[in-house]
Amino acid sequence: MTEPPEPFASDAPDALARHYGPLVFRAAFRVLGDAALAEDVQQDVFLRLIEQPPRDVASWPAYLTAAAVRRAIDRQRQQRRWWRLLPVWRAQAPAAAASSEDVGLVDERARRLRAAMAELSPREAQCFSLRYLEGMAIDDIARVLAITTNTTHVTLHRARRRLEARLGDAVTETAP
């Protein structure tokens, strides 16, 4: 991949959208499980980039991934239609499932996880999504969300405890 343009040159938002659009889409899709909603989030992220340009972005991939996850969580809360959501666990994708019963189990777990995540605080949902759905490192999460690494660890711990209380062992079995 080539380097993205300098931030906010006259064509920078367009070039950033071309360069990082697929990354933003994938992050939104992992949270939402719906391609049309993920495309809407992708457009929202880049529209906001034009309307409110950020300052001093150290890492465009980390910044845009976090923005996509935040917007996708917001969209998910607005929709409140959990039955439309698809699985989030990469390791248990339906294509890898052995039977239709396995696919149904994965779908049900994903639906329950998304419903439980909607009850987390925004920061807990963001940290959990960035860490366990996007595979982002703790230091990167802290930098992107402008919090300390200790706060990140505590927030992840609280999110996992709340999800485990709601879902039982499903979080422990699937979250790395």
From TrEMBL:
Entry keyword annotation includes Transit peptide: no
Stretches assigned to the HTH luxR-type domain: 117-174
Signal peptide positions (record): none
GO terms of biological process kind: DNA-templated transcription initiation
SUPFAM superfamilies in alphabetical order: Sigma2 domain of RNA polymerase sigma factors (SSF88946), Sigma3 and sigma4 domains of RNA polymerase sigma factors (SSF88659)
Gene3D superfamilies: 1.10.1740.10, Winged helix-like DNA-binding domain superfamily/Winged helix DNA-binding domain
UniProt KW keywords: DNA-binding, Sigma factor, Transcription, Transcription regulation
A molecular-function term among this protein's GO annotations: DNA binding
Coiled-coil intervals, chain numbering: none
Similarity comment text for this entry: Belongs to the sigma-70 factor family. ECF subfamily.
Protein name, as recorded: Sigma-70 family RNA polymerase sigma factor
Organism: Tahibacter soli
